[in-house]
Design brief:
The structure is a single chain. The protein is mainly alpha-helical. Helix 1 packs across helix 7, helix 4 packs antiparallel against helix 5 and helix 5 packs antiparallel against helix 13.
């Protein structure tokens, strides 16, 4: 594929529903600290991609799983493939769960009448199965990730549309918000749910409607993992690299840097304008805040539909590395087979549909696993594989940089797991009494 389509594919892989939680992250950290943290995690994501590509250049291998083999043998391959499969199954099933729970609400929002409760288009499961059959499955069957480039263009456009609407709404939404009793809905912030509402916000309208440049609290700690996982695209980097026209590590690094920069701009604009609209009242689900103002705002409903379609179109894109990892584990030495390709695709799509439909607490189930695998794929594995497999001396600048990345990754992983356990303990306090 061309570099342009590769940029769109990688940008699409970076941006999931996590964009909805960044305004809340800014409210918990302040504009200055948020800006510094977002620059840091974007830079570290680009650096970890640099380590992966440099190792590919040195060794001649071109898949995450083979880099694991290079560093740690069969065990490394299983670690890399297992993390990719778990991470992407968790992400895909969570995304489909969003579609199941939110699509009926969006359809109801577009209708000028209250639909019958038993209407088929009000049942999330029916809608999910229909969209999976008509959209996800045909795209997931494509044998090359480059074919999804045009789909990714559409998805990135949806994210741009969302950002533009957030900017426009800044100048029309009053602060403080008028009293309302509309119930907040159910969106997601990647795989790490940060359900801590800012209940300690001051009642003073002057305080509630003034931006904080720098703030630190226990809730600030929840913002860091949310931001750290905002640039996770590493499972898609090497498949995209393999399909570049005249592939080179330098060209792929430019694609990665461009994609991360584009995602950074969209993230930052949506976060700062979302925050400057609602200030300390912003919730972990930015789009729901606009629903507090009016039930049938056609522009907001259009944005919600666009975000849902973008999330839906992300599923076949992140399905590709998951299927590749499955085939790497089970049929690595064999030539390409349409039978294996079809069976792996059907098995994965069936599994994520079952999880999305029958596991109501899917985010809790995959929150712990997702936090672990995300950190491994984003920070720990690129650094660890580079330290072990690179031919450079241990005290070389690159290996010392990789060591720093490894330490950062382990710290983020431990922090994420601790916060998930604390969050679970808060939500289920009775569990401690039995």
């Amino acid at each position: 594929s061309s570099s342009g389509l590769a940029v769109f594919n990688l940008t699409h892989a970076i941006m999931g529903s996590g964009i909805l939680g960044l305004a809340y992250a800014m409210a918990q950290t302040g504009i200055v600290l948020f800006s510094l943290l977002l620059v840091l995690v974007a830079s570290l994501a680009a650096y970890s991609i640099h380590l992966l590509l440099k190792l590919c250049q040195q060794s001649g291998v071109n898949s995450y799983e083979d880099l694991g083999t290079l560093a740690l043998g069969r065990k490394g391959k299983i670690m890399a493939a297992g993390a990719i499969i778990l991470q992407n199954i968790g992400a895909m099933s969570s995304y489909l769960f969003i579609i199941k729970s939110e699509m009926p609400k969006v359809i109801r929002g577009f209708l000028n009448y209250e639909p019958a409760a038993n209407a088929w288009y009000m049942h999330g499961t029916y809608l999910l199965l229909l969209l999976a059959l008509l959209v996800v499955l045909p795209l997931a069957f494509l044998p090359k990730i480059g074919f999804l480039g045009y789909v990714s263009c559409v998805s990135v456009f949806f994210m741009l549309f969302f950002t533009i609407v957030v900017i426009i709404k800044k100048f029309s939404v009053p602060c403080p918000l008028p009293p309302t009793n509309v119930t907040l809905g159910y969106y997601t912030v990647k795989l790490l749910k940060c359900h801590l509402y800012n209940s300690n916000a001051s009642n003073s309208s002057d305080d509630a409607c003034s931006p904080k440049l720098f703030t630190l609290s226990l809730q600030s700690a929840y913002a860091i993992p949310t931001m750290a996982f905002s640039f996770l695209c590493h499972t898609s980097v090497l498949p995209i690299y393999c399909e570049l026209q005249r592939p080179s590590t330098g060209k792929m690094q430019k694609v990665a840097n461009t994609s991360i920069s584009l995602a950074f701009i969209i993230y930052y604009l949506s976060a700062i304008f979302g925050y400057l609209t609602f200030y300390s009242s912003v919730s972990p689900e930015l789009l729901e805040m606009y629903g507090l103002l009016t039930r049938h705002d056609s522009l907001v409903m259009s944005v919600r539909l666009c975000i849902l379609m973008s999330v839906l179109l992300t599923v076949p894109l992140i399905h590709f590395p998951a299927r590749k990892a499955v085939l790497k584990l089970l049929a690595d030495e064999r030539p390409f087979s349409w039978l294996h390709h079809t069976l792996a695709t059907l098995a994965l799509i069936t599994l994520i549909l079952i999880l999305a439909i029958f596991v109501p607490n899917i985010k809790e189930v995959f929150g712990f696993v997702g936090a672990t695998t995300s950190t491994c794929l984003l920070f720990i594995f690129p650094a660890l594989f580079y330290i072990i497999a690179s031919r450079e001396p241990l005290l070389s600048p690159q290996k010392m940089g990789a060591l720093s990345l490894l330490v950062f990754g382990v710290a983020v992983c431990l922090m994420s797991i601790t916060l998930i356990i604390l969050g679970w303990a808060r939500q289920h306090p009775h569990a401690n009494t039995h």
